[in-house]
Amino acid sequence: MKQEFIIEDCSLVRCATGRACCNLRELLDAVRSAEPIVLEHHLMRCALEDHFELYEFPNDLARWSWDALGDRELAEELALLNPYARCGIEGARAQLIDILEEHLWALERVPWCRPGLELHLVESRLVAFDTGERFSTLAGLVEALPRMSRRSLFFHVHEAYRRKNVDDFSSWLEEIGAPDELVQRLRKIDFYFLNLNQLREQFLEHLCAFLAEPKAVLGGAA
């Protein structure tokens, strides 16, 4: 009997730190001294916020630099930072500090945001739970993926990379003997730079390429 994939979902529990940034220098100070769990929220878990489906930026710092500070050059530079590709959150912190210090050094004046557009620092935790849903085949994964919640997708891809440096789907497919080409395709997806709906589409595209009749599984949607 093949090993079943257990679909989990999660809730994001946020807690305000009481600290806010009004300008770029305050952002640099915050990046230097904030607890790791705060950076994790603003670089990683912020992808669960609904408005991230509307932005090209993958993290809060890039979005705030663009929207509130009006600093498009900095926003684009911060958007290229992938915290999952660094040596943990401290590696991401070190690169953030380098980017902000170098950018500040080249400016004639420190950019400020208007009142009401401050970056309020938040820490968060994920609470995962079993949805009770299972599947045991590649076709089952393709059938389940379109109806998974965005939080579930985040847990099995983003949070899985944070825990073990690989997503749950490709890890499970490898365990049940799926083609190695499919496993490697899934692991090459730049998930951090996609919003969650785009991520779902990318996974489905690769998975359907390895199904004989994807339309039959997806009810004609493939």
Describe the global form. elongated
Low-confidence stretches: none
Helix tally equals: 11
Broad structural category = alpha+beta
Q: Please state the average pLDDT score.
A: 92
Relative helix content: 40-55%
DSSP strand count? 2
Strand content: 15-25%
Structural summary, described in words:
The longest helix is centred in the middle third of the chain and has 19 residues, at 88-106. This protein is of the alpha+beta class. The protein contains eleven helices and two strands; from the N terminus they run βαααααβαααααα. A two-stranded antiparallel ribbon has the order 1-2. It is elongated. It is 49% helix and 15% strand.
How would you summarize the topology of this molecule?
Blueprint lengths: L4 E17 L2 H10 L2 H8 L16 H8 L4 H8 L8 H19 L12 E17 L2 H7 L5 H15 L3 H8 L4 H8 L8 H13 L5 H5 L4
Antiparallel strand pairs: 1-2
Helix pairs in contact: 1-5, 3-4, 8-9
Key attributes of the depicted protein:
elongated; 222 residues; 15% strand; alpha+beta; two-stranded antiparallel sheet; single chain; 49% helix; 2 strands
Question: Outline of this structure?
Answer:
With 222 residues, the protein is of the alpha+beta class. The chain has helices at 24-33, 36-43, 60-67, 72-79, 88-106, 138-144, 150-164, 168-175, 180-187, 196-208, 214-218; strands at residues 5-21, 119-135.
